[in-house]
């Protein structure tokens, strides 16, 4: 079936092929990607778009020595396939299969473990500077460096900061701008408009002429380069709209060219490989190329679950029963629309993650109050701060892992001003198959030390709605964290939350289960409450009664409740969270209890959460289990605590 691909186990095998064979191989690689993603799910459309580009790069460069840096990295499947990792695609993004992002632990062909946008240019500048320092004699510097960056990621602030420093590099460094006019959604902002104006003015013939023009003037090394670059720029300027953006930054710019013509790409790269200075090659590709459902709905196929492919029609495969498909994200998306209908001061902001954060309906209903600012999380927070200053109620929706980019903006422009900005922090905790770049394991830690910020974590559907309503009432910055997960069933809400489904009150926890003979108190923060309740039921079956507290807040913490527990009959406290133990919710509890210790009260405390290591791609359930944040381990911890308490008592008597 894969006549050529079967023979490709490394880029060296690729180099033996002719250009005609490369074209055939590109189709086989596409089929292979489709087959793997349809079975396991994964990033599809961006990967289908860069197949020819990837083959051409490996054909021309030698990435055993040369360095290829991916931006975001979700588009590296073809690269992995031809760098000896085909087998891993049987279990793409699963525990013992290949990861969906570049990973140096997997292969010497990967430089950085990445998943966040905007990093490739600056890291490439750093690597180029390193090579430059190692060998002052430019001609000896044989390790070439290529950064491949998408049109949505190149506008990220970090990318621009990298470009701003490109002048430091006095040797080869090629930036490949892969322009498919899409982020996950259509690319946003002024630069995107600029690119799309240029793109619309191009015919296929223009692209072909540009390639020829570049080839006519290159390769040139050393002295002639300036003239050649100037000549090329002039000819491009005559024939095509100039790329003033890069020229004004003094970066030699080539293109735009067709990113699916593998032959032309090979010739171009062979010419550019000799350039002894940084340059940009602007390449047009099509997201979803070669698979019509993905070409037609590029947004839906950016990342997809498993599907059945029948020719060009597809049928999603879901392991989740229809009635349980409500996620924290979808509940948020619905409720924010309901609230915005009643309050026209609510505005929503996303950084290129409209669908991912559940804002699709909001955008449809309130387009004037919706802002997609592109991959620009820090700016999103400052724009929110400005909106808040103008009297609006901004709701900023950013995944936990990407919120790490906004630390200083949250500190200065929001917390220090005590502005009522609401942060809806989706993908908090383990995220499953995207792995360590995407887990949201640090938000409690880095936010709870900031004065003024209220940290909330709802445990269920009702609670998420209540938390949002609370945040809109509270005249302070409020962070609501929730996971990439289904909400617990309606029965859970009715049985467990129903009894305490009262409005959120700042810093107040609620009791969800208590018993007069309780021996341990479990305090759960957020979605993980369901595991704590399950643990309590398991223990009850063994005749051990425990209390369960739904903390609701990590800041301010319900200190008086904690002091009450310390003073009460419980033998100890177990805290549970879907977050790293270090600096998390349990640590906040420990800090409070340490204060209480000085007043002469002490009890054993177990803090359950993720350890200080990076947990690799797997299912979310498996990751929680691996971290001991599940009902069985909570119950086991309670029994251990009880046994220790009994043996202490025994040894005293
Ligand atoms: C800092 C950051 N914010 C948001 C995302 C989520 N995200 C993943 S891919 C993507 C779009 C990337 O578009 P582009 O760079 O043009 O690459 P393409 O997928 O089009 O190849 C976004 C927004 C991210 N990975 N990193």
Describe this structure as you would to a colleague:
This protein is α/β, with parallel strands linked by helices and 653 residues long. 42% of the residues lie in helices and 15% in strands. The strands form five sheets. The chain has a seven-stranded mixed sheet, sandwiched between helices. A five-stranded parallel sheet has the order 2-3-4-6-5, sandwiched between helices. Strands 16-18-17-20-21 form a five-stranded mixed sheet, with helices on both faces. Helix 6 packs parallel to helix 7 (157-164), helix 9 (204-217) runs antiparallel to helix 10 (225-239) and helix 16 packs parallel to helix 18. The protein is elongated and about 90 Å long. The termini are far apart. Residues 46, 72, 74-75, 115-117, 150-153, 178, 180, 182-184, 287, 351-353, 375, 377, 402, 405 line the site of thiamine diphosphate. Thiamine diphosphate binds at residues 46, 72, 74-75, 115-117, 150-153, 178, 180, 182-184, 287, 351-353, 375, 377, 402, 405.
DSSP summary: helix tally:
26
CATH superfamily of the largest domain: Thiamin diphosphate (ThDP)-binding fold, Pyr/PP domains
Please outline the major beta sheet.
7 strands, mixed
The level-1 CATH class of the largest domain: Alpha Beta
* Low-confidence spans: none
The radius of gyration is 27 Å
* Helix proportion: 40-55%
Classify the secondary structure makeup into a structural class. alpha/beta
N- to C-terminal distance: 76 Å
Categorize the overall geometry.
elongated
Tally of distinct domains: 3
- CATH architecture assignment name of the largest domain: 3-Layer(aba) Sandwich
User: According to CATH, what is the topology of the largest domain?
Assistant: Rossmann fold
Arithmetic mean pLDDT: 92
Tell me the number of strands: 21
β-strand percent reads 15-25%
Main sheet: strand order: 11-10-12-13-15-14-19
Task: List ligands, each type once.
Answer: thiamine diphosphate
């Amino acid at each position: 079936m894969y006549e050529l691909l079967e023979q490709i186990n490394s880029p060296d095998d690729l180099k033996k092929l002719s250009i005609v064979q490369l074209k055939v191989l590109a189709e086989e690689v596409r089929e292979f990607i489709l087959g793997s993603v349809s079975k396991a799910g994964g990033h599809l459309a961006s990967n289908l778009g860069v197949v020819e580009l990837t083959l051409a790069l490996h054909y021309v460069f030698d990435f055993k020595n040369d360095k290829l840096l991916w931006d975001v990295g979700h588009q590296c499947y073809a690269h992995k396939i031809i760098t000896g990792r085909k087998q891993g695609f049987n279990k793409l993004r699963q525990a013992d299969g290949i990861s969906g992002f570049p990973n140096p632990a997997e292969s010497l062909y990967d430089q950085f473990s990445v998943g966040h946008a905007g990093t490739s240019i600056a890291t490439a500048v750093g690597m180029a500077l390193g090579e430059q320092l190692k060998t002052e004699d430019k001609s000896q510097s044989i390790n070439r460096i290529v950064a491949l960056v998408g049109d949505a990621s190149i506008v990220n602030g970090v990318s621009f900061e990298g470009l701003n420093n490109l002048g430091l590099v006095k040797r080869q460094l090629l930036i490949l701008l892969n322009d498919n006019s899409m982020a996950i959604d259509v690319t946003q902002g002024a630069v995107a408009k600029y690119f799309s104006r240029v793109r619309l003015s191009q015919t296929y013939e223009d692209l072909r002429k540009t390639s020829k023009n570049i080839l006519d003037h290159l390769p040139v090394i050393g002295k002639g380069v300036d003239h050649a670059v100037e000549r090329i720029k002039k000819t491009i300027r005559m024939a095509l709209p100039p790329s003033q953006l890069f020229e004004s930054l003094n970066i030699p710019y080539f293109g735009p060219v067709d990113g699916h013509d593998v032959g032309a790409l090979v010739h171009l790269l062979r010419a550019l490989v000799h350039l002894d200075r940084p340059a940009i090659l602007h390449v047009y590709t099509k997201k979803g190329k070669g698979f019509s459902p993905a070409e037609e709905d590029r947004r839906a196929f950016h990342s997809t679950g498993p599907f059945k492919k029948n020719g060009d029609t597809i049928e999603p495969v879901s392991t989740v029963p229809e009635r349980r498909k409500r996620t924290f994200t979808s509940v948020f998306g619905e409720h924010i629309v309901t609230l915005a209908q009643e309050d026209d001061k609510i505005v929503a902001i996303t950084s290129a993650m409209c669908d991912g954060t559940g804002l699709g309906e909001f955008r449809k209903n309130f387009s004037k109050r919706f802002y997609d600012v592109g991959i620009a999380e820090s700016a999103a927070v400052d724009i929110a701060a400005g909106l808040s200053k103008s009297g609006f109620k901004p709701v900023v929706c950013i995944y936990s892992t990407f919120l790490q980019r906004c630390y200083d903006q949250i500190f200065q422009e929001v917390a220090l001003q005590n502005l009522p900005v609401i942060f809806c922090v989706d993908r908090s905790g383990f995220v499953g198959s995207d792995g360590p770049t995407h887990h949201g394991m640090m938000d409690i830690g880095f936010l709870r030390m900031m004065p003024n910020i209220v940290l909330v974590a709802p445990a269920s559907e009702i609670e998420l709605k209540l938390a949002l309503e609370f945040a809109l009432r509270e005249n302070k910055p409020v962070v609501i964290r929730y996971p990439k997960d289904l909400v617990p069933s309606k029965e859970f809400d009715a049985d467990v939350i129903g009894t305490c489904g009262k409005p959120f009150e700042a810093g107040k926890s609620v009791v969800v289960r208590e018993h007069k003979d309780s021996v341990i108190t479990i305090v759960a923060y957020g979605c993980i409450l369901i595991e704590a309740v399950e643990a309590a039921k398991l223990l009850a079956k063994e005749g051990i009664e425990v209390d369960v507290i739904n903390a609701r807040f990590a800041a301010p913490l319900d200190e008086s409740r904690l002091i009450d527990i310390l003073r009460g009959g419980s033998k100890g406290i177990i805290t549970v969270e879907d977050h790293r133990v270090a600096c998390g919710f349990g640590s906040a509890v420990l800090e409070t209890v340490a204060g209480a210790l000085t007043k002469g009260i002490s009890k054993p405390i177990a803090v359950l959460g993720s350890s200080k290591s990076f947990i690799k791609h797997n299912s979310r359930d498996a990751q929680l289990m691996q971290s001991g944040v599940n009902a069985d381990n909570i119950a086991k911890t309670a029994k251990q605590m009880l046994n220790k308490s009994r043996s202490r008592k025994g040894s005293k008597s």
